[in-house]
Predict the structure of PhoX family phosphatase.
Amino acid sequence: MFPDEHLEVRLPSRPDSGRVIPLPLLSHHSANRASVTCKYRCGNACAHEAPNTSANAYFGDIVESVLSRRSALKASGVIALAVGGAAALTGTATAAPAPPVRPGRGNVPGTDFTPVAPNTEDLVVIAEGYDQGIVIRWGDPVVAGAPEFDFNKQTAAAQEKQFGYNNDFAELVPLDGSGTRNLLVVNHEYTTETHMFVGYDENNPTEEQVRIAWAAHGLSVVYVERERRGGLKPKPSRYNRRITLNTPFELRGPAAGSDYLKTSVDPTGTKVFGTQNNCAGSLTPWGTILSGEENFNQYFANADSVTDPATKARYARYGIKGAASTRKWEKFDKRWDLAQEPNEANRFGWIVEIDPHDPNSTPVKHTALGRFKHEGAAVKIADDGRVVAYSGDDERFDYIYKFVSNGKVKRGNSAHARRHNMTLLDDGTLYVARFTGNSPASEIDGTGKLPSDGAFDGTGEWIPLASGKKSFVPGFTAEEVYIFTRLAADKVGATKMDRPEDIQPNPVNGRIYCALTNNSNRGSTGNAAPDEANPRVGNKHGHVLEVDDDATGTKFRWDLLLVCGDPNDAGTYFGGFDKSQVSPISCPDNVAFDRHGNLWISTDGNALKSNDGLFAVPVDGPERGRVKQFLTVPHGAETCGPVVRDTVVTVSVQHPGELDGASADKPASHWPDGGDSQPRPSVVAVWRKDGGEIGRR
């Protein structure tokens, strides 16, 4: 960041009105996120204009139009309000007195621990009274025949059998009711070659280094047992499996076999090798794992050499551009060269599903859920037995989606039930969200100040995009909707959001929670202005969205549970809770729940100059909004994939020591092994020293 550069930001929310004030030019993540992370994880997305250049209506214009219509309708005795052709769920936006700030009245079960203070230690710092242990590290053996890890003697053959790099999403899949025997399933999001190999030459990687990176992507399935003292220990098992960029996947659903998915290697358009940039995910009710392919765009070379204007426009909307790629994989396999295989990029950006119970099963890419930068997907079962999957597109100014199946879930844990339920995500309707606030546009001034009714809230609608072979988007065939989903969503006027990341349904209250990590370009010249669902300009701290959804319907209500940042900042909000009693939180990323329904949030890129961490917050009752930090991860690292069980919590510690100026030649961290060792991404387990329940004293 250059301190003398500025963005022009307009207040209030109309892009053509309001005063112009200068704001410092902010990076995509924060001052605390290293540029090397941006380079290797997302292809320096922050250094480029956001791919969404669509002319969707500005939220302020929509609200002002709605309010004008409301006045006219009220004058004629009509009380219903229409937005975008659909009736809203609420009536007027009459301001109510702001709710009183609630002081702490006790500790909610699941959150009863002493908060960890912000810090910059090169270790995992946990709450008092708890203990911790490493579950598994990059390079540890997974499948039979895997050698012990040797940083200086890595091979692709070894990495195919060892735990992959940069663990992100994790889940514990129970094998019985005891909680002792589980399958740990972990995503491996990306590789940072400068931190993996001593003497690495970015311009001339060796073929073996490239093949090691292919093997370090994907997922790991590892059988783990609960130790008596509280930790989790990996064990040899027939379940253990590595899924890499060499693993065959089946493309299924309505777009499978499309001409847009065919390549010289796969003329059927139904088979893909591998999965990459897998970020968040979830455990389905039928015991499989859903995982999202996110920043796949950065892996492909020579987009600039493609001359077809329609193809170039589609590439641009997905952030695919340039000549040589960062990793230079195109030197060793033509599928990464779009000049030779222009459709290969279309075969990534999907939700994948794997069955961890069957190590011989073929993983699936579900085309019915659309193609974009999926942070992940999570499923809830509707009252009528259909399944609903929610997903966010992790890019500045992109959208939130849901899918509703036509088929109904088959109950039970049998292999037959799993096979049936894995087909549910191949047939249904794909929707994108449009949000409407219930406050006047003039009250959303971009500072984070609450409107007069005391909340950022409103209603919304799910706009149908496609169902089966039928498209609801003018000018798009159904297969084009599924494969070029971003462009279809642009066409119908979805709401531009501040990097929607992990979205999960709360198993206790049924509401849906979405982490919106940040968006430093919100309100800058030429970009979407603040709106009630994204209320701050230069949003470097992010917020958490809460949705009360009619699961199989098209209407929902929403509010912002948290507007993150320093509690001393007037532009933050903690569910109405007393801000003097909360932990500071910045850049929410992954979300999870304990059995009490408390929300647990991991962060990515803490812009408050302290390490990332894991936080717990009640979402109901008098303690709603009381954020408490449970742990922090080492400097340079990100907290990923939290799993919260009654007596153990796990987190994935991703890219420890990934700081600018550091490399394998000059490591900035020696976590987790200490001494002069190289840093290794790892999964950590935390438990109470006395063996009791997490968050209860």
In short: The two ends are 45 Å apart (CA to CA).
